[in-house]
Amino acid sequence: MQSDVRKKIIDAFSNAFGSFVSGQEIADYVGCSRTAVWKHIEELRNEGYVLEAIRNKGYRIISAPGNVTSNEIQIGLQTTAFGQNIHYEESVDSTQKIANRLANEDAAEGTIVIAEEQTLGKGRLSRNWHSPKFTGIWMSLILRPNIPFHEAPQLTLLAAVAVAQAIEDVTELTPEIKWPNDLLIKGKKVTGILTELQAESDRIHSVIIGIGVNVNQKLSDFPKELQDIATSLFIESGVSISRAALIQQILRNMEKLYHTYLQHGFSPVKLLWESYAVSLGKELKATTVNETIIGKALGITDSGVLLLEDKTGKVHPIYSADITIPRK
C-alpha cells in the first residue's frame, strides 16, 4: 500500500484532469512542504511517469508507464470506493487467492487486487486462465453486498455488463456475453469472470469477483491450443490499449451498476445483460454435473438463471453449466 502522502498527491493530479497543479496547491492539499512534494514528483518520474513542469504554473502528467500500479490506476480514477484501495503485485499465483485473504482481514469494499502476471490464474470449473506478464488485466474486486445468499450469482452478470461497457467505452469494439461470464469478440473469448463467496449460513461476508481481460496479447502470446478460441483487444482492433484506462472504466462502470443494483434490484442489470447476450434465441448445449441438455436459449430469469427449451418443449432452468454452441 502506498503512503497517504503519495495517495493525496495522486488525488490532486486526478482532480486536475490533465491541467497544471502548482506545487503550493499540492502542498496545501496534502498537508506537507513543497520540498516533500518535489521529492514525490521525482519518485513518480523514477517510476516512468513523464511530468511537465512550468514555472508559475506547476506540474501536470504527460504520460504514464505501461504498468498497472496503484499510481497509474488512481490518477484519473472517477470512483468513490472501487479501486481507492489497491493491492498491487508484479507476479502472483492468483489474485483471487490474495483477495480472499484480504477479505478475511476486513479489507474495505471496493478494494482490488491486481497483478501484471498470474502463474496459477483460474477460471470457472477449475480451468486454468492464461495470464502472461504485462499484457492483460488480472484483477479481483472485493464486494460486501447486503443481499440474500441465492442472489449472489447476479453479480457475475453485473460484472460482465460493466466490462462489456468499458470495452466499448475505451475501444471501438462491441463484445458479446455468453452466459454467464464470458465476453466474446467474433466468437472468441476475450474476458472471463469468476465469482467466489465467503459466507456463513445466514449472510454473505464478501463476494470476490475475478476479472481477466486479454488486452494487448499478440496471437503468438497464446498457447497453440488457445489460438483458435481466444483473442485480445489488440488482435481485434489493431491498436495497443491502455490497461490502466480500461481498468478505470471497468471500476467506474462496476461502481455505478452496483449502486443501481443495490437500490433497484436486478431488473435494470438484466436488461443491459440481454442487450449484449450472444446466446439468446440460439441452440445451446449445457453440460452440468449430472446431465447434458440441448435446447433453445429463451433468456434469463429475474434471478439470472438461464432458461433452455428442449425439443419436447420442456424448459430447463440452468443454474451452473459449461455452455457451448453445438456444431451443425
Automatic annotation (TrEMBL):
DNA-binding region coordinates: 23-42
Every BPL/LPL catalytic domain range: 71-262
MF GO annotations: ATP binding; biotin--[biotin carboxyl-carrier protein] ligase activity; DNA binding; transferase activity
GO cellular component entries: cytoplasm
Catalytic activity entry: biotin + L-lysyl-[protein] + ATP = N(6)-biotinyl-L-lysyl-[protein] + AMP + diphosphate + H(+)
PROSITE patterns: BPL_LPL_CATALYTIC (PS51733)
Any Pfam family: BPL_LplA_LipB
SUPFAM superfamilies reported for this sequence: C-terminal domain of transcriptional repressors, Class II aaRS and biotin synthetases, Winged helix' DNA-binding domain
Protein name: Bifunctional ligase/repressor BirA
Source species: Peribacillus loiseleuriae
